[in-house]
Amino acid sequence: MGFAAIRWLLKIRAFTFNLSLQVKLILSFIFVIFIPVVLFSWYTLNEESAKAMKELLENNKNVLEVEKINIENNVELMGWTGQLALSNREMNNYLQIEQFQDTAQVLHIKKDVVNSFQYFLFNNPRIANVRLFTDNRYVNEIWPVILQESRIQSKPWHDDVMKQGGLPWWEIQENVGLTGMPSEQMPNEPFMTYLQEFKYPDNATHNGILEISMQLSDFFSQTFSSVQDKNSQLIVVARNGQVFSLKDSSVFKQNGAEELISSIKLTSHTDYETVRFEVNGHSYLALQSYIPSIDVHLVNMASLEETMEGINHSRVRYIVLVSLLAAFLVLLSYSMQAIILRRLKALRESMQQVRNGNFNVELPPITGTDEVGELGFHYRKLILKINELIQDQAARQAAGKEAELRALKNQIDSHFLYNTLENVKMLAEIEGQYLISDIMTSLGGMMRYSMEWRQDHVMLSDEIQQVQHYVSVMNIRYDGRLDLRLSIEPECLKQESLKMSLQPVVENAIKHGMSRMHSKDGNLLITISAVRRGQACVIEITDSGRGIPDETLGLLNQMLRMEEHAYQEVRQLFVRKENEDGNGIGLRNVDQRLVMSYGVEYGIRIESQEGSYTRIIMTLPYRVMGGG
């Protein structure tokens, strides 16, 4: 992700370099003003959108709050009606009789008890009916108030009411009719029913069930009201998941109430909870609340089509205004900068003639004390200086030819040395001096490798071969006490490495390893290994010499990356303290070459254990010569 962003920025930078100065100034002028305008417009549009959504949410919340107040009032009304019904002494006496009544007594109950009972309880027009279902077999049914409980024992809610132990139970019923006869006129509308068990005076024996009904449109008056916001509609979700609402609401024009409710997750929180969602490409906002007293969910479903359309219209207006502003800024900037850049254009035309080789160009009359005038002054000085340099160049060409002849002579001398070494090698072989012949071979290879410097990077195998030649030559001095062992992974043989980067390290190992030899046989083992670790190649050169003390080791590692002035000071102190010239200058040179070639994360570091070994760890980026 980071590299992709960098590449993208580099492409933009390369593109802007190809633009004219006038275009760059126009773009910068536009960005300085245009970007703040765009940001301000974006902020204002977001504020308007948030304000519109907040206003919509507040309106829907108010509607939901009003409906909850209506529900609380109706719950209180039906509860109060139930208490009055169960506290009527004459009605309770009749429901608790222990023998059959004659016709005269039944008519008396009908006329004096039931009629007054109905009149008293039905003085509120929202109460649809009040019915007492009793299991007392001595009680005669007096429609529509006193009925036998056997009529409702098959209702799905009967067992739930009995489990309440005398507490109220609320149920939404599609129809409260019992017989289905034409004489029992019931509206084709659901009812909210208040159900409660009543008992005998012992408060233990079941006597019957009280039922108070109210039409759902009266109980949820705001939900079924036709006078409300056309973009929102209240929905009642019953305990069993059944949905009740105003079917012809414009909110359900694209999607029905059941489909919308199925798209949200109903919760049991009594606080308001907002859900925004989409169904078939249409956006909605649902504000829901759970009413535990009647065990229903009340959802205010609002369509966001009109709100989003208003937001889109505002967005289009802002885009048009910002576009007109950008066009005006471009024209204004172009007109102003055409005047300012007139002198620069004249200066550019003169420079183009100079580029084509005309150094006797007539300089444009660029005056003024501003930056452009100062540029014209320095340009005149530059042309004069170029003419002087042209004259000097003619004198230097002769010296260049002489330098070429000198270089050719040096090349001839180096070939003479190679041929001389080959002649000595052949003479040694003729005389049977094969050791001298091998030394001449190694020495000749070293000379060719070091003197033929056509490129700075070589394969690691070439560096290894140079080290082998060097160790062979040094073994003459140390009577064969040097032992070189290699452990190079095949994939590292073509690893790119700096030329002459391994020999100084091996030379340093031989110099310090043989100076204070601690082994019994006096031999020095040098091991070179190379392995690939991820995207790096790690080369380790280990010698079995005397090692380095810990305090000296830390100082040597610091000296590798010190600034030059600090290094020179530490170097002098180190030489006086150690009484020798071993100060890590060879390793420092190798490390600096690696850092300049590959970066600061690559280079060398030193590990050592006094009296045991010293190890130089060289880290290179894994690159195959010719293979990427």
Automatic annotation (TrEMBL):
Coiled-coil portions: 47-74
Catalytic activity annotation: ATP + protein L-histidine = ADP + protein N-phospho-L-histidine
Source taxon at top rank: Bacteria
Regions crossing the membrane: 21-43, 318-341
Location in the cell: Cell membrane
One Pfam family recorded for the sequence: HAMP
InterPro entries in the record: Bact_2-comp_sensor_kinase, HAMP_dom, HATPase_C_sf, HATPase_dom, Sig_transdc_His_kin-like_C, Sig_transdc_His_kin_internal
Membrane topology qualifier: Multi-pass membrane protein
PANTHER family: SENSOR HISTIDINE KINASE YPDA
Record's protein name: histidine kinase
